[in-house]
Write a structure and sequence with these properties.
Elements (H helix, E strand, L loop, with lengths): L7 E6 L2 E6 L4 E8 L2 E5 L5 H14 L5 E5 L5 H4 L9 E5 H20 L12 H8 L8 E3 L2 E5 L4 E5 L11 E4 L4 E9 L15 H9 L7 E6 L5 H23 L4 H10 L12 H17 L23
Parallel strand pairs: 4-5, 5-6, 6-7, 11-12
Antiparallel strand pairs: 1-2, 2-3, 3-4, 8-9, 9-10, 10-11
The structure holds zinc ion.
């Protein structure tokens, strides 16, 4: 396997592999069943997807990739879909809806600023060109709450834990192997990524659902980084919860959004992650709290609806 293009190959359980690639430090899953191979996420371009497909052939010689699962809609997990022509692509229904807009967003960002960052030497001009040249391949099959994929002598479960890193994150579990692929709900090599499409206040609850699927022997594969344990997930869940609670507390104290990162840094608990990566968490969290307050008729929100919106019986929203 010396000609593998991945920088790292781990067999995390029998017939369950993780391949790591340097460009965006994506961790790809490979699950081998008697009826074929399932690939978890496909890297950041059609060219990268092609090299991944070549690597999968080296890891599982003679077996064909019949299933692809996208853990969520972001480009570094989906743009390689087009390289897996013979496979059926599965994703959560929200990820399928959001894939094109998420893809267009990253292409627009790259076109607006194609300069290279010396901190990320693997992301070259050619790599960015390959991202821009990628045509989208949307999922063939979606689910809303849970699904099972039968690989012959084993199977995988797909569960929707709720919103968090995006509105389309899924948790993939291989019960026979006690391996869970968590996508970007969990990150090991960097703090969790709070982007323009994150749900910071709901993220902790989604991680609770993932934790409920774990044993103390589970191997959890993050979207970026090396595999971790349930204890790691519980620790990161506590940190993500601290972000949500600090946002809620600052909002309730009336701290303006523009001051929240600074004031939060000065609070006794402080932000559990570098505040430079939390601007969108604050923006999205504040917007959600304001919307909730408006819906519930909180006068602080600046408007008090005379009656509940149509279809809403006026019950408190949990
Ligand atoms: Zn992501």
């Amino acid at each position: 396997m010396s000609d593998l293009t991945a920088t790292d190959l781990l067999e995390v359980a029998p017939r369950c592999f993780v391949l790591r690639y340097p460009e965006w430090d994506v961790s790809i899953g490979v699950v081998v069943g008697s009826d074929g191979v399932l690939v978890v996420d496909t890297r950041a371009s059609s060219a990268q997807g092609q090299r991944l497909a070549d690597d999968v052939r080296r890891v599982a010689p003679g077996a064909s990739v019949r299933w692809v699962v996208n853990t969520h809609q972001h480009f570094d997990h989906t743009f390689g879909n087009i390289a897996f022509e013979g496979a059926r692509v599965h994703a959560h229904e929200n990820a399928a809806v959001g894939l094109v807009s998420a893809g267009d967003r990253i292409k627009t960002m790259i076109r607006a600023d194609p300069s290279l960052d010396p901190a990320y030497p693997a992301i070259t001009a050619e790599v960015l060109h390959e991202v821009l040249a990628t045509e989208y391949r949307l999922p063939d099959q979606t689910f809303s709450s849970a699904a099972v994929i039968d690989l012959g002598d084993t199977y995988v479960e797909l569960a929707y834990p709720g919103r968090g890193h995006t509105d389309g994150d899924l948790v993939l579990r291989v019960p026979d192997a006690d391996v869970v692929f968590g996508g970007d709900l969990i990150e090991q090599s960097a703090p969790p990524s709070f982007g323009t499409d994150c749900y910071p206040l709901e993220w902790p609850g989604s991680l609770d659902l993932m934790i409920g699927m774990l044993t103390d022997a589970s191997v959890v594969v993050p979207g970026h980084g090396t595999p971790v344990t349930r204890a790691f997930v519980q620790d990161q869940r506590a940190d993500v919860s601290d972000v949500a609670q600090l946002i809620s507390s600052l909002y309730a104290q009336g701290v303006p959004e523009a001051d929240a990162l600074r004031v939060g840094t000065e609070e006794s608990t402080g932000w559990p992650f570098p505040s430079g990566g939390l601007a969108e968490a604050v923006r999205r969290g504040y917007a959600q709290l304001a919307a909730d307050a408006a819906r519930l008729g909180d006068p602080l929100a600046g408007r008090s609806p005379a009656r509940p919106p149509a279809g809403n019986p006026g019950l408190p929203l949990a």
